Each structure stands twice: as structure tokens, then as C-alpha cells.
Amino acid sequence: MKTGPSDQLPETDSQAIERRPIRTLPDLLISQIAAGEVVERPASIVKELLENAVDARGRVISLRIDDGGISRILVTDDGSGIPDQQLPLALTRHATSKISSLSELERVNTLGFRGEALAAIASVSEVTITSRPRNEPHASAIDAQSGEIMPAAGGYGTVVDVRNLFSHTPARRKFLKGSSTEAAHCLDAWRRVALAHPQIAFNYEAWSDHQRRREERWPAGDPIERALACLGPEVRSAYCVVDRVIEGPPELGQGLALQGVLGLPEASRPRPDHQFLFVNGRCVRDRALSFAVRQAFGEALHGDRQPCFVLMLSLDPTLVDVNVHPAKTEVRFRDSAAVRSFLFHAVAGALRAAPGPIAAHRFIAREPEPQAEVPASDRDGDPPSPAGDRQPQFGDRPTPSLFAFRSPSPIDRPSAQAIEAALAFQAPLDTHPLGQAIGQLHGLYILAQNAEGLVLIDMHAAHERIVFERLRAQADQRSIVSQPLLVPAVFTADEIEVALVEESSEALCGFGLELAPMGPTTIAVRAVPALLSKADPTALARDVLAGLRESGNLHALTQRRDAILSTIACHGAVRANRQLSLSEMDALLRAMESTPGADRCNHGRPTWMMLSLNDLDQRFMRGR
Fold first, then answer.
1. What pLDDT does 39 receive?
2. Fewer CB near the last or first residue (10 Å), C or N of the chain?
3. What is the pLDDT of residue 248?
């Protein structure tokens, strides 16, 4: 059967492509394809041009953007400059002065090295470069489109002027956001480069509708001050400095170094938008390293709160591959596990060494007084005998106290004499940062007064931290003491929990908890940590097994040691509605002052807060 012209199906694009011969792509198309990896938005150009200015050893680097960088990006530096005869090469793909061999690529110590950025930028925008080396009598300029070189006015250094982004590829321009959003991304890119190079002065200007909308100037100076300027006022009032150097094993060459600023837990944020990590001066985004930092904060961060930090990691350039992606924001380490471990321990060590808010409220330095022992839980025995020199213990049965206030009720109100006695009470306020206890509120909070005002303490959360730190110290020394139960506590469990006990009984003993299967669906608790001798053994065992079940295996249990200890400590902490005597409250305050990390509980919640006398005066309008 014959077919006429009208019966033939139209040729599809794929069929047309099949009939094309193999050929070399035009240089412009090659550059535009490469630009898709290098130039995502105006901020990508800002990053590349600023890094080139840093590599040129500029001492003052300025950035101006118009309409979020869509209309114009202007970067000026006073660096080494480009000779006029090399200006065309600067716009050529794979042309660079920064490496010349594979060995130099493997130990690259400049921010740029691929020789792609300027060519890619010129392929999607209008670019003019004006430059003057120190030994040249005048500057020279090149227009990227025409390639024409002409004399120009200009000081020493280089000016790169990028206009009308994606004017050559309008389809790409449709994917850009509004000018304010793009300006915010440009500012973030500027800050990331400026953070890594505090020895250089950086200036920023954002223009719109021919008016300057924003300006920032960071003079060259102290790296800590620059980090704090970027992290914001919340971190400025609550931070610590990390500075650690180790001589690594042979596979780590000259070892590792970490410097930077960590926001303390109270300065954490709901989003990870104030996290800046640098490797050999290059800003990178590495989930594994960021996760290591988050793990180092551990239980100090509540829920999904995110830490704030500026961290500079340095190591031998031969041990890190920066040639992973054209944007150069990803790196690979020869020994990534060792780098993550170093980062984790350096950050965790700096946080533990940092004085918390309790330490910051030490008004008079003096030798610490003998601390009252803080047992793990409630004691139901008789009141202590008045004989001897024994001090009241936190956990002793309380005696009626004028200041142990309960929930107010019509039949339970302090008398006029009680109020006078309370007003006459004078504690040595300058002795301890948390002051002296004056009462208890709703069986939940301890009220204390110090030299600055009123202190409120969450007694369960505070005691939980104290018990946890003691358990952790014992675990570090492999000396958690067990207390055998006179009668084992037996409870019903499922087959998975029984199997976990059979597989992990030795590891559980390391936590001071001795469990044994008594049948297919029965488990017996034979011993508990001595600090928790009065805790509910069945509830404790169930919670620990739930954590073990979540971790899945014995190795994971060891990794989750602190989480298991936190669960144990929660069971050993004083419970709500437990009425305490003043001496018990003071014993808890003194234990908090001597416990690392006592400003927050094991779950990241604050354990105390303070209302200053000034705050109270303002609320009661005193002096007005």
C-alpha cells in the first residue's frame, strides 16, 4: 500500500537528533552550559568575584549590587591586578594563574583554581574588567563581548562590572526571585567570604531605584569580633571561643586545627541559618560536619533548636579534595571519620569548658564551701538526728518551714507574723551566684534571692542534670555502682525486649542496671544504680529498654550512652510536689553551682532564670 505525503508522520525532535552527526559544540554554548553549574543566581557571581579578589591579595574589597545583583554587580579590590595583555585570557575558559600541574591541584591553597568563573559569568551577562598592576602607568579595560582592550582610568587593583544578568539567556532569568530576596542571598555570600578573611576590610552596598538601601562595612581586625558581628547580638551576650590544635597521626599529615566562635545553648535558633563552616578558608556546606557540631551540643539544645557558630577548620591541603563541584562548596576528606571526630571533641570540649550563666553570676571570688551531698532520690526514713555535725541533706524528710510555700488556699495563708519574719530574713547574698533559698512554689520551683534579685529554679530539671553529670563521671571511670534489690522487680515484656536483655546484659551492667530474663515474656530487675536506689526499678528498666530497642544493637547502645544515662537520671531526680526544707533547697543550689552544664537540663531546657531588682522595680513602678 502506497502512502502519500499527507499520510507521513511529522519528524520528532528525537528523530532529528538521531540523524545529526557528532560535532564540537560552539565555545559560547560550552560556556553557557558550564555557567549552569557556576552561576545559579547573583549570589553565585558575588562569591566567585570576591574569592578572586581575595586570591589577588586585596586589602580592601568592596561589593555593590543593584536590584539584588540582577541589574549590576560591581566588585573592587586593591590587589595585584591583571596586566593588559592577559585580560583576554582572564575571560577564557580553563585559563588561570593559580595552578599549573596536577601536583598543585592536589595541594591547592587558593579559593579559585578552575579557570571557569569569569568565562561562565561573561556568557550569561555583560562584563567589563578594569585592572591596573602596581608596575603599570595606567589601568586597562576589556569588554567581554567585543574583546576590545582600551586604556582606562583606575587605581591599583581590579574592578569587575557585571550587568544585566541572564540577558543572553532570558529563560534562566525567569527563575530568579525578587530583588530583595536575591539581595539577601548576595549579602549572605558576602558575609561568608568576609568571615574567613578578617585581615581584609570588606564593604557592602545594596542599591535599588538609584538609592542606597543598605550598607555594611567590616574593617580589618579581630576575627572574633567579625564572627560576632555576623552571628548577631544574641550570640554576643552568650558565646565561647574554640581554639584547638592537635598533631594528628601520619594519615593526617600536620594535624588539625579548629578556631572559631560558638554560640552557647541559650543563643540557639529555630533554624540552621547562623552556621558558618570553613575548611582551609573556604566556606563549605557539609552535612556530616554540621551534624558533628550539632551532636557536640548534645542534650544542651532543646528539641529541634540549632546552634550558631563560625568555625575555621584547617588541615594539610593534600588531605582534602576541593575539586568536587564547580561551585567549590563541597569537599571530600581522605579520612572523614577522623575529621568528624576531631570536630566533635573540639566543640564539645570548648562547650564544657565555657562558664555558664551560673558562673557568670559569681559576685565575690572565694574558696568554695563544703558541699552537701545530693542523693539521687527521695528518702523516706526518719528525720536526721540533731546529734553530731551532720548537715541537712537534699533528700532528707523536710520539716515544716515558714518559707516552704504551697499553693495558696483560703485556709492556708501565711500569718502577719510569718510575713514579717520573711521580710526580716537576711541571707549572705554575696556568697553564692544562685543565692539562698527562700521558698518553694507549687511544688515545682525553688525561689531564691541573690545580690541581683529573685532566682527561680526548676528543681526537677536541675536535679536531673546533677544526677546525670555524676552518672556520666562514673561511667567515664567505669565505676557506676549498682545497688542489688532485696526482692527483684519482675515485669511483663515482649519477646523483643527479652531478647535485648539476653544480648545486652553485660552492657546494661555497665550502666549499673542488672536485668535477667525470667521466661519468654518476663524480665527481672536485680540491681539498679546506687544513685537511684529509691527509683521505680520497673519504670526505669522499661525506659532503658525502649532506648535500647530504638538504637537496635549493642554498638548503638554504647554510642547512645549519654541518652541512656539521661533516662536513668530523669528517674532519679526529685519529683514534682516534693516539699523541700530550706536546707535541702540550699543543698541543691550549691550542687548546681559545682556541676558542669547545670544551666540546662538533660533535654536542653533551662534550669533557672532570674528577675533582677531593676526588672521588679520597673514592674512595680518604683521610683516613678
1. 79
2. N
3. 57
> CA nearest 120: which of 26, 24, 189, 37?
37
Provide the sign of the torsion angle of the four alpha carbons 232, 273, 281, 218, taken in this order. negative
Map out the domains of the chain with their CATH numbers: 27-218 (3.30.565.10), 223-354 (3.30.230.10), 480-572 (3.30.1370.100)
| Sequential DSSP letters for 62-89 | EEEEEGGGTSEEEEEE-SS---GGGHHH
How many Cβ atoms are within 10 Å of 437's Cβ, its own excluded? Answer: 26
DSSP assignment of 264-298 equals -GGG-BSSS-SEEEEETTEE---HHHHHHHHHHHG
Gap between the Cα atoms of 582 and 501, Å rounded: 42
Cell of 399: 520539716
The CA distances from residue 501 to 34, 505, 524, in Å, are: 58, 5, 10
Closest CA to 587 of 356, 359, 357, 370: 370
The grid coordinates of residue 191 equal 558575609
Asked whether the beta carbons of 166 and 125 are under 8 A apart, the reply is yes
Name the helix (H) or strand (E) containing 601.
none
pTM, whole model, 2 decimals? 0.61
pLDDT of residue 252: 53
Reading the block at residue 146, the C-alpha cell is 567585543
Cβ-based neighbour number of residue 450 at 10 Å: 21
**Residue range 546-564, pLDDT digits in tens:** 877 765 554 445 555 666 7
Q: The cell 499520510 sits on which residue? A: 7
3-class SS string, 148-216 = CEEEECCCCEEEEEEECCCCCCHHHHCCCCCHHHHHHHHHHHHHHHHHCCCCCEEEEEEEECCEEEEEE
Residues 6+ apart with CB under 8 A from 253: 315, 316, 318, 319
Nearest CA to 604 out of 188, 266, 291 is that of: 266
Q: Which three cell numbers stand for residue 384?
A: 536526721
For the beta sheet containing 239-246, the strands, ordered from the edge strand earlier in sequence to the opposite edge, are 239-246, 256-263, 309-315, 275-279, 282-283
Q: Which residues of the chain have pLDDT under 50?
A: 1, 6, 9, 100, 250, 253, 362-427, 554-556
Strands (E), 464-615: 482-492, 514-519, 522-529, 608-612
> Torsion angle, CA of 282/283/285/290, rounded to 10 degrees?
100
Q: Could you tell me where the beta strands, DSSP code E, fall in 417-546?
A: 436-441, 445-449, 453-458, 482-492, 514-519, 522-529
Answer yes or no: are the C-beta atoms of 584 and 396 closer than 8 Å.
Answer: yes
Terminal-residue alpha carbon distance, the chain: 106
Beta bridge partners of 277: 311
Cα distance between residue 509 and residue 484, in whole Å: 12
Find the helix or strand (DSSP H, E) in which 158 lies: strand 157-163
Q: 488, exposed or middle or buried, with CB in 10 Å at 0-12, 13-18, 19+?
A: middle
535 close to 395: Cβ distance less than 8 angstroms: no
Provide CB contacts within 8 A for 600, sequence distance 6+: 265, 299, 300, 302, 465, 606, 607
Task: Give the separation between CA 326 and CA 36, rounded to whole angstroms.
Answer: 10
Residues 6+ apart with CB under 8 A from 477: none
Cell representation of residue 203 = 564593604
Cα–Cα distances in angstroms (integers) from residue 75 to residues 81, 205, 211, 595, in the given order: 13, 11, 18, 51
